[in-house]
Amino acid sequence: MMSDTHVLERPPEGAGTDWTVPQNWDAFTREEHAVWDTLYERQIRLLPGRASKAYLRGLDLLKLSESGIPNFEELSERLMKLTGWQVVAVPGLVPDDVFFDHMANRRFVAGNFIRRADQLDYLQEPDVFHDVFGHVPLLADPVFADYMEAYGRGGLRALEHGALKQLSRLYWYTVEFGLIEEDDGLRIYGAGIVSSFGESRFALDSDSPNRIGFDLKRVMRTNYRIDDFQQNYFVIPSFDELLRVTIETDFAPLYDEILAQPDIAIAAIEPGDRVITLGTQDYARGRDAA
Ligand code: PHE
Ligand code: FE
Question: Which of 112, 134, 161, 272 could connect to 195 by a Cys-Cys bridge, CB 3.0–4.6 Å?
Fold first, then answer.
């Protein structure tokens, strides 16, 4: 899922109370499988040297190079053996508590539709390419798999504390748009980046965005944009460190603290930031002027 807004209020016709539907893989047309192949081929050329090692390993282990939209049953079987995760189909965005409950039980909910051939770059709702190509490879990594499960439990807890917005920012700046510092340089791992033709280059190559060392409280106070490339990326030192700091920290007192503080503007630099690259913000300025 890319967004925290939801369109439907109850499970649509044919969906279970957990909002899942059969993937109905046989119903995808040749054209739809061809859209997957087109998207796959242009991403896979970009990712070596850009995507994190764990992500590339996951692509390989899960055999995502096979042609066409993956069959969730086969994919889940492979994933289950590696980390105990499954992929289940949903018709679109689901309510937050449903989303978190699936995650807490190691079920990743994936969209059951694919963008049209004339929409390769722009889409409002996460489709099967974003959800599977973007998110699923890292679920094959044991550490990231643990992080995602913990996040699901954390989500249910955040709802009780009225802190959904704060916790969603953590998801946004890690799971969707995170960067990682590896031995040979910065790499992308967020699903919103690795599944995007434009942003998988922009996030690493552009002089425009800020790249700042990850800090839990800082991230949970920072607004984000959902309509264009990020102006701000947060860089983790490793998945081990991300997991360690998020599971060892009790978020309840942290929520109280940050709910009393002002939000941080999207491209602002704060005292205490470890600035890795200070962006020009030229790209954002150019777009706002257009
Ligand atoms: N430790 C967090 C809490 O106390 C839960 C969490 C773990 C949230 C991992 C996000 C990621 O709520
Ligand atoms: Fe997503």
Answer: 134
